[in-house]
Amino acid sequence: xxxxxxxxxxxxxxxxxxxxxxxxxxxxxxxxxxxxxxxxxxxxxxxxxxxxxxxxxxxxxxxxxxxxxxxxxxxxxxxxxxxxxxxxxxxxxxxxxxxxxxxxxxxxxxxxxxxxxxxxxxxxxxxxxxxxxxxxxxxxxxxxxxxxxxxxxxxxxxxxxxxxxxxxxxxxxxxxxxxxxxxxxxxxxxxxxxxxxxxxxxxxxxxxxxxxxxxxxxxxxxxxxxxxxxxxxxxxxxxxxxxxxxxxxxxxxxxxxxxxxxxxxxxxxxxxxxxxxxxxxxxxxxxxxxxxxxxxxxxxxxxxxxxxxxxxxxxxxxxxxxxxxxxxxxx
Length: 331
Description:
Elements lengths: L1 E5 L6 H11 L3 E5 L3 H9 L7 E2 L3 H9 L34 E13 L21 E4 L2 H11 L10 H12 L1 H5 L2 E3 L2 H4 L7 E5 H7 L12 E4 L7 E7 L8 H11 L2 H11 L2 E2 L6 H6 L14 H6 L8 H16 L2
Helix pairs in contact: 4-5, 4-13, 5-13
């Protein structure tokens, strides 16, 4: 039994099934909703997992906490397919404990048949879309959006004054837009319940599968800034220290870094593998995305110029959470 710990719906069942069949092993998938939940599962006495999908901000903590095995690169020939800057990323020098999985940006998904001008974060402040506007239900993403919309790049600030100012900016959206929060942009925009939705790029790619019968994918659009006022992120793959099949775990990591396998996985998750072979032009040519969703494909250049949400101190995290809670209480 090869045991995997991952977010729900974040790896293709067909890809896992094919890997298991090739290697004569059953695969068991355990899911989590937050990194805190995942780490709790890893720390459970007697628990054993072979592959885990962590975010970069927790890799250092997990390594220090003896929750990860150092990777054996002799099993990871396909790591060369990843973006060059992710073959030895800033958050895991030398890819000692992780390899890259998916990349994404945080932008604005919209219905192109209802939105034709005014693209930018300001779409979420446009009264024309009142009652049909949503924010990502995440305290760091939501408050960072308000900061970036108002020209601040300090999305990892620990200054309570700046954090609370972001909360004040967000609160403008309650009377102005009757703003809602959620993480189902792929469904809400596709079905027309949301006209504009702060979302992750993968949500809009995935939304193509949620369109009602007869509705063309050209109704979906995604905006991301062309300067450095945008949020980008990556998720990773790692082998927990509790792994009972570490060699096979390495082989699965390498399998998911194969471009053909990664693209098949992409077709299920909507979230893009951080591989050099996955380009906006190729995705449009292969009719994987429409021209209107070309901006949802992340490139190494976009990754390099954009902002990232990092781990902050517990005290600062508490201020971010409290500010977000006050905003949501006012909805």
